[in-house]
C-alpha cells in the first residue's frame, strides 16, 4: 500500500552541518511515486530524512505520513497493514497513550514507546517500516515475517545510509548503483531472481524477512537481526479430520481479518482451489456484514491455459460480480526488456506479465484485492515436492556410492529430449536421484544448470565469481531437515516465496495502485501448516490434500477436480519466430560490452532453439530480461555523468 524512502547520516560520518539534501530525498521519493498516488510527505531534521508516498486504505483523511508521536520525537514511515491494530490501540490507550488517528500506523509508534523492539512480536500483518527515535538517536528498520513488503538499504561512499521500498528509490543516491554484483548475477541466471539478502548491486542489500536493523547515530554499521522463526513441528498426533476442522477455522479467521478497509475490496480469481476458496469465504463475510457482492477479477491469454471460463463459474458459484478480460501476449522481447523498469533488477518470472494485467484490471474497481498466494508453499501443492519426495525414497533404496556409480553415468549419457513425451524425458529424474537430496532439489528449482550457465560466461566473469556457488544456500537449508517435503517447503519459504512470488505480487500490484492481501500467508496459519505431518499434505500422489478437504464444501466439484494448471506462455514458438531479432538483441552491446558473456555460446543457444533441436524458450527469456536490465543500467551509468540527474 505505499512506499517510503530515507537518508540517515550517523554522527561518525556526518558533515559539520548534518544536513540531509531535500532535493535528493525528493528525487528518491519521486522514483516510487507509483506506489502511492494519493499523497506524499517528508520529514527532515539533522541527520535524518524520511520520504513517503501513500495509497490510502484505512483512515483516508488522517493517515498522512511521515507520522509522529505528540512531540514528533518519534517519526515513522510505514508500508503495509496491521490487522490487529484495534486491539493494540486499546491496549496502548490503557497504558496512557493518546491517539490522534484511527490509522494502523500509529500503533507502531506508541508500541515502540512502551515495548521497544518487542513491538515486532505483537504486530499481526505485513509490513516494512523505518522508525526514527530522536531521544535515543536510533533508526529501526524492520520487515514482516514472510517478506511480503520489501526494504532495500545501502551505505553510500560518504557513509550515508539510504533505504527505500524499491531499488528505484536508491538509484539516485551517488555511488550506490555504480557496481554490479557478479555473484547476484549468477544467482539470477540460476534461479530467475536475486535471492535475499543480495541485490544486483554490490552496495545495496535487501533486509531479509523476519529481520530488523537497529542503527544508532554512534554505531552506523547495519547489522540485520532475526526476530521470528518458524517453530518446530508439533509432535502431537493429529488426524486428518481434526486438522481439517482447525484449518477451516484458521483460514476463515485469516480471511475475515484481511477484509478491513475504508475503500472497495475485491479478489483475484483463477480457476484454481486457493483463490476460489478465498473468494468463497470473503463473499460470505461480505454478505454477513451487509456489504454488496464482492468483485472478482480474471485475465486470460487465449490458448490452452486460459482460465477465464473456470474462474467465471467459480465467481457465479460465490455470487461475485466478475470482471474478466482477454489480454494478447504482446511482443515477447519487449515484455522481457520491460521487466527491469518494474523490478529494478533482473526478474525472470514470466507470470509477472499476467500478474500486472490482472492488477491493472482490478484497479478499475477496487483498491484492495485478496489473493490465493501461499497455498502451494504451505500445504505442499507444487509438483516438484512430490517428485522430490519420490526421489528421496529412491535414494534410500540405493547406497550413496551405488547411486553415484550407476545412475550418474546413465544420466550423463541419456539424451536431452526436450520435445519428447514426458515419460521419455528421464534425464532430469536420473540426475536428481544420482545426487544427494539437497543438490537434487537445487537442480529441480534451477533455471540454468551449472554447466549451461557457466558455458555462457567468459573467463573474466568466472574469475570474478571466485568460486561462488548458488546451491550453497539451498544445501544449507535442506541439510537441517530430515523430512524431504518439509525440507523443500522450508527452502521455498526462505528463497522462492520472498524472492520470486512476493516480489512479483508487490511490484505488479504497486505499479497498478492496488494492495494485495494473502490470507493463506497469515504467519500463524503458515506456522501451523508447516508443522503438519507430510502425510496430511501429500496423499495418493496429490498435493494439498488437507487444504482440498478443508475447502471442499466451498467449491464446485469441477474446481476441485480440475488439474493444477498455472500460467504457461507460448514463449518457445514466439521466440523461434523472432530468432533474427533475438540475435540482434542478445548479441548486442548491452550483453557483450560487459565482457562477461560468450557471444558464440549465446548464438549457439539461439540456433538450437530456432532449429527445434532444443527448447531453450525459458532460458532465452531469462537472458532477454537480463539484457534489458543491463541496457538500462548502462544508460543510467552514462546519465550519472550529468550532475542534474542526481541533484
Q: What does the secondary structure layout of this molecule look like, with pairings?
A:
Elements: E1 2-8, H1 22-30, E2 39-45, E3 48-54, E4 67-68, E5 74-82, H2 85-94, H3 105-115, H4 119-122, E6 125-133, E7 138-143, E8 152-155, E9 161-164, H5 167-170, H6 182-191, E10 204-206, E11 211-216, E12 225-226, H7 240-257, E13 265-268, H8 273-288, E14 295-300, H9 308-318, E15 321-326, H10 332-343, H11 352-363, E16 368-370, H12 375-379, H13 383-397, H14 400-413, H15 427-434, H16 437-445, H17 450-455, H18 459-465, H19 472-478, H20 484-494, H21 496-512, E17 515-517, H22 523-530, H23 545-551, H24 557-561, H25 571-577, H26 579-586, H27 589-592, H28 599-611, H29 617-639
Parallel strand pairs: 13-14, 13-16, 14-15, 16-17
Antiparallel strand pairs: 1-3, 1-9, 2-3, 4-5, 5-6, 6-7, 7-11, 8-9, 8-10, 11-12
Helix pairs in contact: 2-3, 7-8, 7-23, 8-9, 10-29, 11-21, 13-15, 13-16, 13-20, 14-15, 15-16, 16-19, 20-21, 25-28, 25-29, 26-28
Question: Which spans have pLDDT < 50 for at least 5 consecutive residues?
Answer: 419-425, 641-647
Which strand order spans the largest sheet, edge to edge or round the barrel? 2-3-1-9-8-10
* Number of E-type strands: 17
The profile of the biggest β sheet is: 6 strands, antiparallel
Reported CATH architecture of the largest domain? 4-Layer Sandwich
How many helices?
A: 29
**Rg (C-alpha, Å):** 25 Å
How would you name the CATH homologous superfamily of the largest domain? Aminohydrolase, N-terminal nucleophile (Ntn) domain
Q: Averaged pLDDT, please?
A: 89
User: How far from one another are the termini?
Assistant: 28 Å
Q: What structural class do helix, strand and pairing data support? A: alpha+beta
Q: Looking at CATH, which topology of the largest domain would you report? A: Glutamine Phosphoribosylpyrophosphate, subunit 1, domain 1
Beta-strand share of residues: 5-15%
The first-level CATH class of the largest domain is given as Alpha Beta
- Please tell me the total number of domains: 4
Helicity range: 40-55%
- What would you call the shape? globular
Amino acid at each position: 500500500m505505499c512506499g517510503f524512502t530515507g537518508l540517515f547520516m550517523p554522527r561518525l560520518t556526518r558533515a559539520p552541518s548534518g544536513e540531509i539534501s531535500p532535493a535528493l530525498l525528493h528525487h528518491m521519493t519521486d522514483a516510487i511515486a507509483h506506489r502511492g498516488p494519493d499523497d506524499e510527505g517528508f520529514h527532515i531534521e539533522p541527520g535524518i530524512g524520511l520520504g513517503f508516498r501513500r495509497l490510502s486504505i484505512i483512515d483516508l483523511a488522517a493517515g498522512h505520513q511521515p507520522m509522529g508521536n505528540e512531540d514528533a520525537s518519534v517519526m515513522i514511515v510505514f508500508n503495509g497493514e496491521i490487522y490487529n491494530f484495534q486491539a493494540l490501540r486499546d491496549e496502548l490507550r490503557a497504558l496512557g497513550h493518546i491517539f490522534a488517528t484511527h490509522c494502523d500506523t500509529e500503533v507502531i509508534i506508541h508500541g515502540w514507546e512502551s515495548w521497544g523492539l518487542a513491538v515486532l512480536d505483537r504486530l499481526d500483518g505485513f509490513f516494512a517500516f523505518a522508525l526514527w527515535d530522536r531521544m535515543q538517536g536510533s533508526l529501526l528498520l524492520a520487515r514482516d515475517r514472510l517478506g511480503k513488503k520489501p526494504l532495500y538499504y545501502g551505505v553510500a561512499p560518504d557513509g550515508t545510509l539510504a533505504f527505500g521500498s524499491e531499488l528505484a528509490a536508491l538509484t539516485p543516491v551517488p555511488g550506490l548503483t555504480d557496481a554490479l554484483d557478479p555473484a547476484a548475477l549468477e544467482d539470477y541466471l540460476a534461479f530467475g531472481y536475486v535471492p535475499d539478502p543480495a541485490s544486483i548491486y554490490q552496495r545495496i542489500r535487501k533486509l531479509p524477512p523476519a529481520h530488523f536493523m537497529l542503527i544508532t547515530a554512534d554505531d552506523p554499521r547495519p547489522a540485520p537481526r532475526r526476530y521470528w522463526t518458524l517453530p518446530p513441528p508439533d509432535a502431537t498426533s493429529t488426524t486428518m479430520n481434526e486438522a481439517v476442522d482447525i484449518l477451516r477455522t484458521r483460514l476463515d479467521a485469516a480471511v475475515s481479518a484481511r477484509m478491513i478497509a475504508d475503500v472497495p475490496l475485491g479478489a483475484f480469481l483463477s480457476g484454481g482451489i486457493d483463490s476460489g476458496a478465498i473468494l468463497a469465504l470473503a463473499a460470505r463475510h461480505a454478505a454477513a456484514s451487509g456489504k454488496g457482492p464482492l468483485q472478482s477479477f480474471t485475465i486470460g491469454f487465449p490458448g490452452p491455459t486460459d482460465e477465464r471460463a473456470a474462474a467465471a463459474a467459480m465467481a457465479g458459484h460465490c455470487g461475485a460480480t466478475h470482471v474478466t478480460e482477454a489480454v494478447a501476449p504482446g511482443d515477447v522481447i519487449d515484455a522481457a526488456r520491460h521487466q527491469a523498469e518494474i523490478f529494478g533488477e533482473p526478474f525472470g518470472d514470466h507470470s509477472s506479465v499476467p500478474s500486472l494485467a490482472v492488477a491493472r484490471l482490478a484497479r478499475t474497481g477496487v483498491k484492495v484485492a485478496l489473493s490465493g498466494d501461499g497455498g502451494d508453499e504451505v500445504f505442499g501443492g507444487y509438483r516438484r515436492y512430490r517428485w522430490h519426495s519420490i526421489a528421496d525414497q529412491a535414494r534410500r533404496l540405493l547406497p550413496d556410492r551405488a547411486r553415484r556409480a550407476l545412475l550418474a553415468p546413465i544420466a550423463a549419457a541419456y539424451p536431452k529430449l526436450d520435445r519428447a513425451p514426458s515419460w521419455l524425458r528421464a534425464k532430469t529424474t536420473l540426475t536428481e536421484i544420482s545426487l544427494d537430496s539437497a543438490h537434487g532439489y537445487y537442480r529441480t528449482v534451477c533455471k540454468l544448470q551449472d554447466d549451461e550457465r557457466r558455458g555462457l560466461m567468459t573467463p573474466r566473469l568466472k574469475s570474478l565469481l571466485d568460486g561462488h556457488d548458488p546451491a550453497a544456500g539451498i544445501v544449507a537449508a535442506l541439510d537441517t531437515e530430515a523430512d524431504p517435503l518439509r525440507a523443500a517447503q522450508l527452502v521455498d519459504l526462505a528463497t522462492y516465496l520472498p524472492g520470486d512470488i512476493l516480489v512479483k505480487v508487490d511490484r505488479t500490484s504497486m505499479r497498478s495502485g492496488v494492495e494485495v492481501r494473502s490470507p493463506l500467508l497469515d504467519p500463524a496459519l503458515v506456522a501451523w501448516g508447516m508443522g503438519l505431518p507430510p502425510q496430511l499434505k501429500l496423499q495418493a500422489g496429490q498435493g494439498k490434500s488437507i487444504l482440498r478437504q478443508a475447502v471442499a464444501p466451498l467449491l464446485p466439484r469441477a474446481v476441485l477436480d480440475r488439474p493444477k494448471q498455472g500460467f504457461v506462455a507460448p514463449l518457445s514458438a514466439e521466440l523461434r519466430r523472432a530468432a533474427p531479432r533475438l540475435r540482434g538483441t542478445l548479441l548486442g552491446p548491452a550483453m557483450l560490452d560487459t565482457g562477461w558473456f560468450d557471444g558464440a555460446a549465446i548464438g549457439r543457444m539461439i540456433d538450437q532453439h530456432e532449429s527445434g533441436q532444443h527448447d531453450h524458450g525459458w532460458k532465452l527469456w531469462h537472458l532477454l530480461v537480463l539484457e534489458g536490465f543491463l541496457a538500462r543500467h548502462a544508460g543510467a551509468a552514462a546519465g550519472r555523468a550529468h550532475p542534474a540527474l542526481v541533484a
